[in-house]
Amino acid sequence: MGEFELIRQIFMPLAGQSGSAALLLGPGDDCAIQRVPPGQDLVFSIDTLVEGIHFPHHYDAEKLGWRALAVAVSDLAAMGADPRCFTLALTLPEARREWLEAFARGLGSAAGVFGIVLAGGDTTRGPLTLSLQVHGTVPAGTALLRSGAQAGDLVCVSGTVGDAGLALTYLDDPDPSADAAAVLKRYHFPMPRLELGRRLRGFASAAIDVSDGLLADLGHILQASGVGARIDGALVPLSEALCRLSDHGRLRAAVTAGDDYELAVTIPEHRWRALADDVREQLTVVGSVTTEQGLVIINGDDVQGATGFDHFGDV
Ligand SMILES: [Mg+2]
């Protein structure tokens, strides 16, 4: 069996069926066809992961499959979009059946959990690199943008931040403790906040997913919206595992570490009060949006002392 046939055989089970809600025409032709239902906007984004830069050398293929799709789909969550289909461009040093099957297993589990199907792809030979383009839809005009934050809005973050960044310390640990295993899970199997993103449509004034660290990503919202924010470091949600594993400088590490794939959002106060309880429970209010540009952190001594950035408008 040739390489092409091998790859086709391994990835075919992930392919969306022609004529399904997500795909008018699935893989196998020159292009796939997606019909966007009337009254919906198409939302799409591409992410590239390079071995040694975005994931470690010799990273487990199954985990890579999950992670690659989760990271791409997280951008759909940040827009409040419903996932539809994705394409995959895979550059591989060699086509090894065992590696491909493990990768497809991780990719397939993630696709099933996130409700997204493979629409097509391409493979080439070269250093291990993955590009995934994800497509989603939202009711017309309701996508969550980075640019809508206004002074007075509450700044909120979902879940907890910092675990995935801390996990990097334990990647080579042959026998991680329960706490280390908990933070490692956050790194290996990120869960994009799709349901939360959807539920925030019509409520959040701006949103972003936390891929580069809470401060950096919040900075993108502030810059796009032309506003600033005041954050209380004591309110930043940290997991119990993280608090047990790290002490000195943990807040700084948690707000500057990436790979959490939580959502950072701004919400006008009256809309916060109108949110369903189960949505509010997934969010922590950490501060508010201000007219003055830049990000001010109070009660974050180790953030300001360690880095010198107590006020930065250009993150
Ligand atoms: Mg993003």
UniProtKB/TrEMBL annotation:
Query: What EC number(s) does its UniProt record assign?
Result: 2.7.4.16
Additional detail: Reaction mechanism of ThiL seems to utilize a direct, inline transfer of the gamma-phosphate of ATP to TMP rather than a phosphorylated enzyme intermediate.
Residues that, per the record, bind Mg(2+) 3: 30, 75, 209
Highest taxon, organism lineage: Bacteria
What is this protein's name? Thiamine-monophosphate kinase
Provide the binding site for Mg(2+) 1.
47, 122
Which family is this protein grouped under? Belongs to the thiamine-monophosphate kinase family.
Ligand binding (Mg(2+) 2): 47, 75
EC primary class = transferase
Q: Which Pfam families match?
A: AIRS, AIRS_C
Q: Which residues form the PurM-like C-terminal domain?
A: 151-297
